């Protein structure tokens, strides 16, 4: 069986730049944004190296000469960045919010229907989801941005189009629900530990998200707002991914250059292409990296050792106490 490294390099050979967007299972960011995860990476992207674990840095006999050369190029690039930044591949990490940091705790259509029943909503969850997708994909004529300030006009349109209910009380209850910790949970339960290790190593971290002004209170409700050195919200910076301006604004907030940054997100168009257009590196969540520990390992081998030692010490203490 081919090693993990071989599989990554093979994916580069088989799917360079011709892959479509990650599938949009649920819709956009904001009230709901748990998008599907893409499955391939662009040719010559250092992001492929992100999923290579240290013990799997060799290629076995099943890999082709082309794959071997590509893998060598990726490793050379990674080593170059580590030398440039004193053991780190990047000086700053940008993280997408919905679909990467957090996901809805329950399906959107289920919540729309459950809350809507007392307001007379009797549409099936399947129909709500289909209507939602159609409404979300329509051009938003009132503004070039979907999320302006609190995003209420946009979301009122979405909720009404999805359910057929325009009751203002229904909308307010639904709108406020998605600003609470009940509506969301972290994609990776180890995120806090990893982010702290990165910050201790001098890596700056920012959220870069297409969202309305509810994002900040939502991060506070989830008790993770203090994990980040900056938050770039599209509704505040007046630019939505894939517009490179939102990434450049995040660079300004952290005081770094785009080439110093890697962005991690789950949407190929918004996150990967947008970040690269701004001059940042980019890794696709769910494909290039599966967890924030993998992100940490990719950014710093020394942080990997720190995490493994911390886990070993925690286990040892647990065994002693037991």
UniProtKB/TrEMBL annotation:
<dbReference type="Pfam" id="PF00702">
    <property type="entry name" value="Hydrolase"/>
</dbReference>
<dbReference type="InterPro" id="IPR011949">
    <property type="entry name" value="HAD-SF_hydro_IA_REG-2-like"/>
</dbReference>
<dbReference type="InterPro" id="IPR023214">
    <property type="entry name" value="HAD_sf"/>
</dbReference>
<dbReference type="InterPro" id="IPR006439">
    <property type="entry name" value="HAD-SF_hydro_IA"/>
</dbReference>
<protein>
    <submittedName>
        <fullName>OLC1v1036522C1</fullName>
    </submittedName>
</protein>
<dbReference type="InterPro" id="IPR044924">
    <property type="entry name" value="HAD-SF_hydro_IA_REG-2-like_cap"/>
</dbReference>
<dbReference type="InterPro" id="IPR036412">
    <property type="entry name" value="HAD-like_sf"/>
</dbReference>
